[in-house]
Amino acid sequence: MVEDARRIAPAAGRNREPILAALRDLLPPSGLVLEVASGTGEHCAHFAAALPALVFQPSDPDAEARASIDAWCAGRSNIRPALALDAAAGAWPLAAAAAVLCINMIHIAPWSATPGLLRGAARLLPPGAPLILYGPYIQDGVATAPSNLDFDASLRARNPAWGLRRLEQVADAAAAAGFGAPAVTPMPANNLLVAFRRG
């Protein structure tokens, strides 16, 4: 019996439809969508099935994650094999993309991954193209949900370099990388979908 490499993230099953609904208004009608930190691969498989005119390029720095991604995405003609990609790296194994998508990464990574992601996306995207981020954030002047405060504390207990990021700090780093102001969409479970456009 061949071992099934697919991993399962329960949150992916819960949030994939709301994210997909938002992506329909943000992604271009065709072209290559790079997903950074694809994790299990469940999101990529779901989005590619619903958006057949787009080609998806999943990626993850972890070899076991890439095996899961490829297992979830097997047989789908509009998904490329997963790439080894570290968001913080100075060079990425891809020359261009029509959009970049990153779900639930920046709070489970050192801060250096965030400006790395923004700089890398800026290198790949043409003017006006979207970089779309999803996850929980802390916002100036907005009360943070108790569940997000608990989540932040648990992340920092696991790794002091992790934790929820201030949206304003991410927007400042995005502006430094050449992106415009974010369009922010509230999502279920106290998450945000944040879309930047390449300047």
From TrEMBL:
TM region(s), chain numbering: none
InterPro entries hit by this protein: DUF938 (IPR010342), SAM-dependent_MTases_sf (IPR029063)
Protein name, as recorded: DUF938 domain-containing protein
Organism: Falsiroseomonas selenitidurans
High-level lineage: Bacteria, Pseudomonadati, Pseudomonadota, Alphaproteobacteria, Acetobacterales
